[in-house]
Amino acid sequence: MASSRWTASTESARAYVEIPLDRDPVALVAAVAEHGARAKVRTGGVTPDAFPTAAAVARFLRACTDAGVPFKATAGLHHPLRAEYRLTYAADSPRGTMFGFLNVFLAAAFLRDGMAEADVVRLLEERDPTAIEFSESAVEWRGHRLNQAAIAAARESGIVAFGSCSFTEPVSELRAFLTPQRRTVS
Length: 186
What we know:
With about 190 residues, the protein is of the alpha/beta class.
């Protein structure tokens, strides 16, 4: 009889190492690369002070891109775009400015495609939903364009996942963000 236990192999299980953003991450990301692991960045928490600056996130993205280290982002990525939100689901929860998962994914992809770090910071801080446009073959942000191949490459060897306390919230908000009424690039 076949065993019902799942066995992880090096092909199906990946080690992620959380990198702190309070200092330059280059050396830690290099160590992660040396050991064949992946990096993890925490982009928020349940208090406003748990959220790093956009510049710190951009610095992490640059370190991973330069070292060729795939990574995931967790905490506080419940919404597509950066804005002020309640930090927990409690009615009396404090509010804080959260990163959007689209901001983080697109910043990583554009950075991998050659975008300047200053523009990456601006993209991480973007709050205007009309500034990001999608088509069948590309995504555009304020005159910068990524085709499908660049997006696929970023997903393969750059940002591979994000974490949220909710599965339905990011999905439903992304659906609303991508409604047919939104303008798309041609």
